[in-house]
Amino acid sequence: PEKRNITLTLGVFFDGTGNNAVNTQNMLAACTAAHFDISDPDAESILARMAQEQMGVSGTGATSYTGGYTNIHWLNTLYKTDLPIESGQAQAAIYVEGIGTEAGRPDSMIGLTLGVADTGVIAKTDLAVKQIAEAINKFFVEVAKTVSVPSLKVTELRFDIFGFSRGAAAARHFANRIQTEDRDIINAIRYGMNDVEYAGAPAGKTRFIGIFDTVAAIGTPQNGLNPHTANTGDVNIVLRPGVAEKVFHITAQHECRFNFALNSVQPAWPELALPGAHSDIGGGYLPATRENIYLTRPEAVTVPLDTPLADTRTYRHAMEQL
Apex CA 277: angle with CA 206 and CA 61, to 5°? Predict the structure, then answer.
């Protein structure tokens, strides 16, 4: 009998630096007591205390536990994975935790600051590759409930790739791995398809790349471990013609670019600057926060290394102004 042709599209969602939807979800679940309100201006400090008490993480290690969901999380949630098989179109989603983070573990200082090592940009693309086979397998398990899987033929495998911040850099690197037919991606697709007939490109094709404010900020020996440059080291973020059918980049119009050096996609691909700073564009803020910011001119003084902070003139002067 003639097989039913389908196009399978995998949505891959790379979260931003210090953003982890799993850790956010677990923290909010741990704070469901009646006294906790996520919209309370003091919610961040409450989450920080709970992270230390219940998760055993604090300071920089608790970054992903004390923030809100990003737009990557929401896009992942909204990605349609219930298309009727009769349409010949199917979609599945892969979520990749943000750079510097792992679910249930303290955030990594080296990953957060330099974007490298086990939780760095390239490592997150490796994690995405590992999830390809699992996502395809899971899709066929669901399909098998209503359709005979051997009766299907996957004529095309496509990717929709999304990312924010360093996650946008990971999205771009991942797209380049697809375009260059990375052997690990080919193997992952082959393993995921198992006995299902597959007639598409060995590493699939990218349909769409949607990214928010790409800031690779990779610290390498070549740039003196300085993440304040647009140098990306081994992370390949150049989006050449043919890397995807469509690319769209939304950037932060009012970001301080010394802190977040932008990796533009222009002139090859369209880019839209919207009002706001980095996380106004990609998300991750709590609904409301209380910040204590003192808009005073910085003061500096040179003192011996062993001088107590409280004994310095600048410290005393600052305290007088409070």
Answer: 80
* Residue partners of 44: CB distance under 8 A and separation at least 6: 66, 286, 289, 290
* Cβ-proximal residues to 248 (8 Å cutoff; 6+ apart), any chain: 208, 209, 210, 211, 269, 270, 271, 272
Q: What amino acid occupies position 192?
A: G
Give the C-alpha separation, 63 to 60, whole Å: 5
> Alpha-carbon distance 276 to 271, whole Å?
15
Contact 176, 236 (CB under 8 A): yes
Specify the pairing of strand 89-96 against strand 271-274: unpaired
Tell me the CA distances in angstroms from 120 to 158, 227, 271, one per residue in order: 25, 13, 25
pTM as predicted = 0.86
Instruction: Identify residue 150 by its one-letter amino acid code.
Output: P
Distances (CA, A) of 53 to 57, 108, 149, 297: 8, 19, 48, 37
Could you give the residue ranges of the DSSP H alpha helices within the chain?
21-30, 43-50, 71-78, 109-114, 121-143, 166-179, 183-193, 278-282, 313-321
Q: Closest by alpha carbon to 42, among 222, 228, 240, 291?
A: 291
Tens-place pLDDT, residues 220-262:
777 777 777 767 889 999 999 999 999 999 999 999 888 788 9
Backbone angles phi, psi at 37, to 5 degrees: -130, 115
Whether the CB-CB separation of 94 and 128 falls below 8 Å is answered with yes
How many Å apart are CA 171 and CA 174, to the nearest integer?
5
- In whole angstroms, give the CA distance from residue 165 to residue 211: 8
CA 70/CA 258 separation, integer angstroms: 22
> 210 Cβ partners below 8 Å, 6+ apart?
75, 160, 161, 162, 247, 248
* pLDDT for 35 beyond 70: no
Q: Which residues pair with 163 in a beta bridge?
A: 14, 211
